Input
Amino acid sequence: MECPHCAGHALRVREEGGRWSAALAQRVSCPDCDGVVMLPEDAKAGDTVSCCGRTYRLTFEYGAFAAEEK
Output
């Protein structure tokens, strides 16, 4: 879910046990196009993501993910 008041961040919203919660959904920009890739909740540095028919390795520095060419 896109949040118009959250500086361009997206949120994952879920209901568990009758209570609603939201968590930041990590995303990375594609190095080759204007696309944005939503990362799975368990993403970690070293994982791979795909966009534009290419595969990129995730890095994590300064509290944010980035997609870099393998």
